[in-house]
């Protein structure tokens, strides 16, 4: 479930493992690009936690999620643009 809440600028989004709910800030939800980026972040974090991977002592889920945000997703966006140019 996805809910829109007012986080007063403190958070963009948050996954609640116990309820399987993603909350998104109302200002984030109003901006399509930011909403997509935030949802992608929260969904990936939810996947790691629901799979059990995010609960290890050494493993830090947030670092992996941020790695995806900063490296993987931008690389994929560039790849999609190249693919679109090659296959209009």
Overview of this structure, please?
- The chain has 88 residues and is of the alpha+beta class.
- It contains three helices and three strands, in the order βββααα.
- Strands 1-3-2 form a three-stranded mixed β-sheet.
- α2 crosses α3 (61-86).
Task: Describe, in short, the structure shown.
The protein has 88 residues and is of the alpha+beta class.
Features of the shown structure:
88 residues, alpha+beta, 3-stranded mixed β-sheet, 57% helix, globular
Q: Total number of helical segments?
A: 3
Distance between the termini: 35 Å
Alpha carbon gyration radius: 15 Å
Largest sheet: 3 strands, mixed
Shape: globular
Strand content: 5-15%
- Class by helix and strand content? alpha+beta
Order of helices and strands: EEEHHH
Instruction: Enumerate the spans where pLDDT stays under 50 for 5 or more consecutive residues.
Output: none
Calculate the mean pLDDT score and round it. Answer: 87
Strand order of the largest sheet: 1-3-2
Percentage of residues in helical conformation = 55-70%
* β-strand number: 3
List the helices and strands and how they pair.
Blueprint: E1 2-5, E2 13-16, E3 21-25, H1 26-29, H2 32-51, H3 61-86
Parallel strand pairs: 1-3
Antiparallel strand pairs: 2-3
Helix pairs in contact: 2-3
